[in-house]
Known about the structure:
Layout lengths: L7 H8 L3 H23 L2 H20 L8 H19 L7 H14 L4 H18 L3 H12 L4 H8 L3 H27 L5
Helix pairs in contact: 2-3, 2-4, 3-4, 4-8, 5-6, 7-9, 8-9
Amino acid sequence: MKEYFQKNEILAKINQGDEDIFLQMYNYYAPKLFRHICYRLSSRELAEDIAQQVFYKTWQYIISSENKIDNLNAFLYKTTNNLITDYYRKSVRENLSLDDIDNRLEDKLFTKSACAEVVDQEFEKIKVKELIGQLRSEQQKLIIWRYFDDLSISEIAKITGKSKNVIYVGIHRALKDLKKLTIQFYEKISNYPKY
């Protein structure tokens, strides 16, 4: 479906303000952008608000500008990234405490079957998110865009304004750093006493 919105005739209709095509585009991209924002901000309500702002700003750009969108995917993610950056500039970021992690895990245990598999999956998700959070901001974005949002190297290059080679190297280094953090974490927990 992503390729559908990259076709010249569909992109031309979007740039001309075709409401039906814009609604199709909204229905396709809204869940993807919502997941992306929710992952980055850890707030469902805030993610909904920002996702709506992305489409509102996109529509305003289309109908009130001579500029045209040449890569819809990159345009939407760049707009999303700018709105998230604006949010962080305007507010103080809360750190996730260990109590919050415990509460999240307890909620999952009591709402789902309390089997070891569920506990392991939830622990892994929380740990991966925490480890990614230890990377530099730019590395976090690259990992999220590439592996969570499934954006191509070209699309990420367009979003960031950097060359494809720089993006490729940045992703490679981010993965290398993430691997080091993961190894350190598992070495650390393997040294805990076993009961």
